[in-house]
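pasting for ref
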Amino acid sequence: MKELVEVIAKSLVDNPDEVAVTEKEDDRAIVIELHVAASDMGKVIGKQGRIAKAIRSVVKAAASKSEKKVIVDIV
């Protein structure tokens, strides 16, 4: 999941070198934190959060086989 979020984010931003993705896992959920440059924050979130919602939908679909919930946080 971490790699999927990283590839999507790097294709959206102007500064792909500043994209960092961390993954934390516990017994119920996987939390993926996406860090981007401040100037690229709007590109990752999108108008009314549409791009962020789309990223979360793609990750949720990719994680449908696992029994854990996947949460994507944009920091």
